[in-house]
Amino acid sequence: MSGAFAQCPGQSNQVFSVPSNNGISNYQWSVPSNVSIVSGQGTPNLTVNIGAGFSVGQLCVVATSNCGVQSASRCRTISSVSPATPANIVGSVNGICDQTISYSIPAISGATGYIGVFRQALLLQLQMATIQLTSPLPIYLQPDRFALLLKIVAVPV
User: Fold this and answer.
1) pTM score, two decimals?
2) Which residue, 22, 91, 137, 155, shows the most beta carbons closer than 10 Å to its own?
3) Domain residue spans in the chain?
4) Which residue would you say has higher pLDDT here, 44 or 124?
5) Topology of domain 14-79, CATH
6) Distance from first CA to last CA of the chain, Å, rounded?
7) Cβ contacts of residue 117 below 8 Å, gap of 6+?
8) d(CA 120, CA 118)
9) 4: pLDDT confidence band, cut at 50, 70 and 90?
10) Percentage of the chain lying above the pLDDT 90 cut
11) What pLDDT, on a 0 to 100 scale, did the predictor assign at position 26?
């Protein structure tokens, strides 16, 4: 399912979609409280309005084949709540050449993954070491020459 899963209350015409399939005759969407369907019920593309009182909920779709067989429900959490800031990164900062160094951060409620932003110069300094980041959720790394060494931010559900 694709679409913007971080939503602000009051947004309109937000589009969510699933890949279309020639063998599917109907897509049955269900939306959380304070979200209303504008158009697209029965199709792979759904347009919704996010109500003023929206905070978090499940957006789900069930596909029905031309033969009447229904798929399992596919759901994604949409939320207007940002996850908390991750705690400090834990790991060694000294004696890291020619070693595998592990760094970790504790789990954060309301996050589905983490984005690690690191200064490109950090890569040059650590070419002699293998960096291993561990977390209960996926970590996505992206270079940023303006970041301060390594910073982890949580990805909202």
Assistant:
1) 0.54
2) 155
3) 14-79, 100-156
4) 44
5) Immunoglobulin-like (2.60.40)
6) 13
7) 141, 142, 143, 144, 147, 150, 151, 152, 153
8) 6
9) confident
10) 37
11) 96
